[in-house]
Amino acid sequence: MSTVSTAKAPARVDRTTGPRPDRGKRRQVRERQWPAYVFLSPWLIGALGLTLIPMAVSLYLSFTDYNLFDPPHWVGLRNYTEMLTDDPRYWRSVGTTMLYVVVAVPLKLGLALGVAMLLRNLNKGRAFYRSAFYAPSLLGASMSIALVWRALFNDGGTVADVLDTIGIHTGGWVGDPHLAVYAVVLLTVWQFGAPMVIFLAGLQQISPDLYEAAALDGAGRWRQFVSITVPMLSPVVFFNLVLEVINSFQVFTPAFAISGGDGGPADSTLFYTLYLYERGFTASHMGYAAAMAWLLLIAIGAITLILFRTSRSWVFYADEEGR
């Protein structure tokens, strides 16, 4: 005779009634978080209204023909194709900007590192000299300093007179197509204070024991610099390099002041941002200028990515193995 099991299946729990435990916890978390969003709201509003929305509008305008007065007219990729295939001044602006970046950035970083190493070994007056060397970084971006710089390098200016006294007859740099861009380069190099301060902070983090051990092994100053200073300072070098490259591609005020706003003479100071300004606000081709701005953004992003990729082979981090 078969036995019939009298065991009952477990009762189903009705999950549709009553508050869920996790739902109450999430409500408490949200109640604790809302003050943070209130304090973040000014930044969020600024990021949305001053960055994200203008970027979206600029991207749209780059595909239009817009002159600031009439409604934008959609032209597709015409601005980009004209820029890349039918605008020789665009490519001159690219070449001038690349020359400026290749010359100015190494000179500026080299001078900043050299002065930082001198200040590291200075016992008295370090704070004064550090402030004095940093001051040009605060003043150099102003239009007034750029105009003074133009006067110094103009025909009959101080630089030409001083060079004449030592037998170097260059004339005014501002009016010479071969030298005008280097006047802008020197103005940029003169503003080496910001990377210098960063280099000085990095140098102070290197342990003196490393130099003492190298000296005991017979390493000279140059060998110590190559084998200790450069590897230990490579993250700081990389940081300064990325910042200076990005900033150099966006140079505008010195080029505008020294060239008189037209990129002269003979387009020798026609930097990318100056040509962008000319096409957008002088010629009222705002759609074309927006396309130039987006290509500049893409180029800076690509170069920055290349710097990050290549940094794996030369940037040394003491707290990571295999670097």
Could you tell me the CATH topology label of the largest domain. MetI-like fold
How many β-strands, per DSSP? Answer: 2
Say which CATH homologous superfamily of the largest domain is assigned: MetI-like
- How would you sum up the global shape? globular
Indicate the multimeric state: single chain
Helix content: 55-70%
- Annotation field: number of helices: 13
Q: Provide the CATH architecture of the largest domain.
A: Orthogonal Bundle
| Structural Rg | 30 Å
Percentage of residues in strands: under 5%
Strand order of the largest sheet: 1-2
Protein name: ABC transporter permease
Keywords: Cell membrane, Membrane, Transmembrane, Transmembrane helix, Transport
Biased composition (Basic and acidic residues): 11-22
Pfam families: BPD_transp_1
Sequence-ordered SSE layout with sheet pairings:
Blueprint: H1 21-61, E1 64-65, E2 73-74, H2 78-85, H3 88-120, H4 126-139, H5 143-152, H6 158-165, H7 180-190, H8 193-204, H9 208-216, H10 221-249, H11 253-259, H12 272-282, H13 286-310
Antiparallel strand pairs: 1-2
What does this structure look like?
It is found in: Cell membrane. InterPro entries: ABC_transporter_permease, MetI-like, MetI-like_sf. Keywords: Cell membrane, Membrane, Transmembrane, Transmembrane helix, Transport. The chain has 323 residues and is an all-alpha fold. 67% of the residues lie in helices and 1% in strands. It has 13 helices and 2 strands; from the N terminus they run αββαααααααααααα. Strands 1-2 form a two-stranded antiparallel sheet. Helix 3 (88-120) crosses helix 8 and helix 12 (272-282) runs antiparallel to helix 13. The model is unreliable at 1-7 (pLDDT under 50).
